[in-house]
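To close the section, here is one more complete example, presented without commentary so you can practise reading it yourself. The ligand is adenosine monophosphate.
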Amino acid sequence: MINLVLFGPPGAGKGTQSDMIKEKYNLVHLSTGDLLRGEIKAGTPLGIKAKELMDQGQLVPDEVVIGMIDSKIKANKEGNGFIFDGFPRTVAQAEALDGLMSENDIAISGMVALDVDEEELTKRILKRGETSGRTDDQNEDLIRNRVKEYNTKTAPVANFYEAQGKYKAIGGVGSIEEIFTNLCAAIDSL
Ligand code: AMP
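Output:
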């Protein structure tokens, strides 16, 4: 079993690379952003509450995303493993994830991070916003707010895995195939 955390700021290419990694390693892809957008689409109370925060580029509360991930881990723990995308986004989420994994007698194999600078991120997200239909991809101030949330609350999560000897970073600028090759090399070395 291999359980990966794909890490990086918004717009780093986590979604694109997760799809390719999921195919190659036969993993269950868990994106908290996608799960939250599913709740919004279904009009659930959780979705309505989360939308307010997402529309401001802020993180939703830890317990909300941890609860969603908990049920998905339980439902899929007999598979080949997981790729977590956009989660954990705070140190509290990372600690909770370790707890959920060990409750199910499994563990995180490692975190692989995609490095991309802020100007490139903003450019990419605005471009994605032309077709993604995501309102949070269409406003530059909102995008900068998401990157700020990432820098203050999410970036420290890298140290959490580094302290466990489970962290690798690679450059996230270049062709999709080139980045995928480097990611796979990092994953295989974990
Ligand atoms: P994403 O699709 O990963 O860019 O996430 C879109 C938005 O969903 C973020 O800006 C947050 O508001 C929210 N979100 C997604 N994942 C998390 C998480 N793990 N913790 C808190 N908020 C999240």
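Once you have examined the tokens, check your reading against these statements. The mean pLDDT is 96. The longest strand covers residues 110-115.
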